Inverse folding.
């Protein structure tokens, strides 16, 4: 019995050592959770227990993370690093987290994202939250490179909302073949171009709400049509309902089944069209074709009127010529006689100057 009791005490002591909690953190072995929240940490703490599956290190002052930050944490499944002011993520930072499925880097200031920053062994990562994570919109180029080079072939959800993105590089998501949910809400995207969503054959939901889309041109419509199985959210965009938006309006009506907020899409500009349903916008509402037909008719009418005026002026001119035909004829004869006299004078002078005999007589008389 004594040996058994000693063994139990020894195991308890050993377990307590194994399950020691880092300073300024809270650990729960029963919940497999460690929380280091708002403790003014400058780096990822060491000594995190190996049983940890849920690791929350948030609200601190950590500026950089690298491969040495998460060693020995093979069991971590959910990792939250939000609101830490992280500005740099090195390549292979999360490579040792071979069980990682969810990574939250939201509310940081990522200015430098290395090419393989999100690589995880076994490609276990399923959810990546980068909402409010980019330092500015120029960081999207680093992000595009990292999404291309990191092993994210099994990623299911990507959140890029609230990042002030103005544009998306071509084929930025082409290596995320398993992606099912893409959140791009509350950015400043002004257009959808060809190959923007290339490679997203399995995408189920695309959120484009609260951007700066005034319309979606035909190029963008073709791009969205490459995602026939994707549910779309397009609300809270400043759609400008003027001539030229008809193809987009017709596309919305044709694609209502896949646009979850189609009924709520409204015109924002001009003021006369504000709060008019985008589904109701068409040639009848805008009157573009009617105005174009009217403009064509007015142009044709002006051409006809100009032809009539010119014809009338020509008739008057011919009539004036007819009335003054005698005077005109006399002037023509006078001009002909004057020209003839001038010509004869020049001809006479030429003969005098060129005749040899006349030239000798002229020279002898001079002598």
């Amino acid at each position: 019995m004594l040996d058994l009791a000693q063994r139990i005490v020894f195991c308890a002591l050993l377990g307590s050592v194994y399950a020691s909690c880092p300073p300024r953190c809270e650990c729960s072995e029963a919940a497999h959770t460690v929380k280091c929240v708002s403790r003014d940490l400058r780096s990822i703490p060491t000594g995190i227990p190996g049983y940890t599956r849920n690791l929350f290190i948030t609200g601190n002052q950590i500026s950089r993370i690298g491969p040495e930050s998460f060693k020995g944490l093979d069991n971590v499944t959910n990792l939250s690093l939000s609101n830490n002011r992280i500005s740099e993520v090195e390549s292979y930072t999360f490579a040792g987290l071979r069980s990682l499925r969810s990574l939250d880097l939201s509310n940081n200031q990522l200015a430098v994202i290395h090419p393989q920053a999100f690589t995880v062994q076994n490609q276990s990562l399923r959810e990546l939250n980068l909402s409010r994570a980019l330092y500015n919109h120029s960081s999207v180029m680093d992000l595009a490179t990292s999404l291309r080079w990191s092993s994210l072939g099994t990623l299911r959800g990507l959140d890029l909302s609230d990042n002030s993105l103005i544009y998306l590089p071509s084929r930025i998501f082409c290596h995320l073949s398993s992606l099912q949910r893409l959140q791009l809400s509350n950015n400043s995207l002004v257009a959808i171009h060809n190959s923007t969503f290339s490679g997203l054959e399995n995408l189920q939901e695309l959120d484009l709400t609260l951007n700066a889309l005034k319309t979606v041109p035909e190029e963008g419509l073709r791009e969205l049509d490459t995602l026939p199985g994707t549910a779309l959210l397009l609300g809270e965009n400043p759609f400008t309902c003027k001539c030229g938006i008809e193809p987009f309006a017709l596309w919305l009506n044709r694609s209502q089944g896949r646009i979850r907020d189609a009924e709520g899409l409204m015109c924002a500009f001009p003021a006369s069209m504000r709060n008019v349903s985008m589904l109701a916008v068409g040639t009848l509402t805008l009157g573009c074709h009617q105005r174009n037909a009217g403009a064509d008719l007015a142009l044709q009418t002006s051409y006809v009127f100009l032809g009539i005026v010119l014809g009338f002026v020509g008739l008057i001119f011919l009539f004036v010529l007819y009335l003054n035909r005698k005077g005109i004829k006399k002037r023509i004869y006078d001009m002909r006689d004057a020209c003839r006299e001038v010509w004869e004078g020049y001809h006479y002078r030429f003969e005098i100057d060129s005749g040899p005999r006349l030239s000798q007589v002229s020279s002898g008389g001079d002598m």
Observations:
- The domain at 159-311 is CATH 3.80.10.10 (Leucine-rich repeat, LRR (right-handed beta-alpha superhelix)).
- Residues 8-18, 361-367 have pLDDT under 50 and may be disordered.
